[in-house]
């Protein structure tokens, strides 16, 4: 009986060993599959990281180029704005100078005009005084004198003769 017990134990041990080897083989296969899947995931992650890094570098290069272009354009606009401002200032100064000259000319013309008007006024008053004095001395003499006074008066050029 001892023999049969030991055979049974050996026989029973064989099945367990077979199951154990089968389980180890299954575990090894699962481990290999898991390692292969992990390697695939790591490989995909590395590829994705490399792609993202490449895109980031390209975006950084494009951003630097866009910034440089924007800075150059801004400098150009500032130069144009300064040139325009300088031109406006120069034209403004020229207009101010022209207006001063025109004001001086108008002032001179108005002073001459005022002098001419005062001179004409004085002559008219003098002639009127002469006419008044002549009215007392006779009508014929005063009519001749008035006619000669009218001939001496001239209408200035700036007055229309309508």
List the helices and strands and how they pair.
Blueprint lengths: L1 H134 L3 H14 L10
Helix pairs in contact: 1-2
Give an account of the 3D structure.
With 162 residues, this protein is mainly alpha-helical. It has two helices and no strands. Mean pLDDT is 83; it is low at 1-11. The longest helix has 134 residues, at 2-135. Helix 1 (2-135) packs antiparallel against helix 2 (139-152). It has one domain (2-152).
Keywords:
about 160 residues, about 90% helix, about 0% strand, rod-shaped, disordered N terminus
Secondary-structure element series: HH
Report the structural category.
Answer: mainly alpha
The averaged pLDDT comes out at 83
Radius of gyration: 61 Å
Number of strands: 0
The biggest beta sheet reads: none
Which geometry do the CA atoms define?
rod-shaped
**Residue runs with pLDDT of under 50 for 5 or more positions:** 1-11
Oligomer: single chain
Instruction: Report how far apart the termini are.
Output: 165 Å
Structurally, the number of domains stands at 1
Per DSSP, the total helix count is 2
User: Roughly how much helix do the residues carry, as a percent range?
Assistant: over 70%
Strand content: under 5%
């Amino acid at each position: 009986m001892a023999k049969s017990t030991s055979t049974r134990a050996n026989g029973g041990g064989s099945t367990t060993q077979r199951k154990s080897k089968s389980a180890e083989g299954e575990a090894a296969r699962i481990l290999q599959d898991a390692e292969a899947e992990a390697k695939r995931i790591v490989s995909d992650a590395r590829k994705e990281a490399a792609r993202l890094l490449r895109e980031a570098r390209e975006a950084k290069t494009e951003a630097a180029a866009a910034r440089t272009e924007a800075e150059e354009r801004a400098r150009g606009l500032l130069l144009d704005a300064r040139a325009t401002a300088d031109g406006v200032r120069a034209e403004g100064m020229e207009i101010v100078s022209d207006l001063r000259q025109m004001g001086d000319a108008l002032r001179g013309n108005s002073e001459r005009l005022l002098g001419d008007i005062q001179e004409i006024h004085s002559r008219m008053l003098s002639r009127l005084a002469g006419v008044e004095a002549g009215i007392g001395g006779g009508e014929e003499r005063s009519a001749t004198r008035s006619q000669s006074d009218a001939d001496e008066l001239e209408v200035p050029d700036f007055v229309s003769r309508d």
